[in-house]
Amino acid sequence: MIVNTAEALALQHIVERLDKFKPRQRWWRRWVKRSAVAIIIRELNDHLEILMIKRADREGDPWSGHMAFPGGRMDRGDITGLRTAMRETEEETGIYLDKAGHCIGRLSDIVSRPHSGRQPMVVTPYVFRLHTVVSIEANHEVAEAVWIPMSYLMDPVQRETMELKRGRFAMTLPCYNYGKRRIWGMSLRMLDELLSLV
């Protein structure tokens, strides 16, 4: 049973604020490529953890080797983005979210710049709370799955910067370095919006 810690209160705040939260939705998302991801929160003893995966190295994959949330592209058979997030999570991690947890809300759509072609992709994050213990059975798309303590992400001391070079240009961007795992980009934007609800 979870004790009344700051993180337990943080989860309560997230649940309450997600219930009232009005995420930014791209009205034109129905006409472009779409993806959805699952941000999964679990309560373990007296603290909270968020599941992230490291994508397997694959030639031609622009997100190869990146830290991310389980998820992927919407199939024609997916009625909603929520269904996409649940299906992709099951495929990538073996977690059946409809049995092991429930969705407590969604965050704002994020537009991904296209790596090929001109059409952007809209990514929708859904937040889940687990209510049972799960085991992870990663598929070939996942190099590693790791539970990251929310206390780590909420600690400003852990926030760092990185330099990203694109051709002649260099940009300084925020990131976390959790061991040898770097969290940045779209995943960090999603985390920042989630943590802003605490």
Automatic annotation (TrEMBL):
The record ties this protein, via InterPro entries, to: CoAse, NUDIX_hydrolase_dom
Origin organism is: Zhongshania aquimaris
The source's domain of life comes to: Bacteria
Q: Where is the Nudix hydrolase domain?
A: 31-177
Which Pfam families does the entry mention? NUDIX (PF00293)
Give coiled-coil spans as residue ranges: none
Under which name does UniProt file this protein? CoA pyrophosphatase
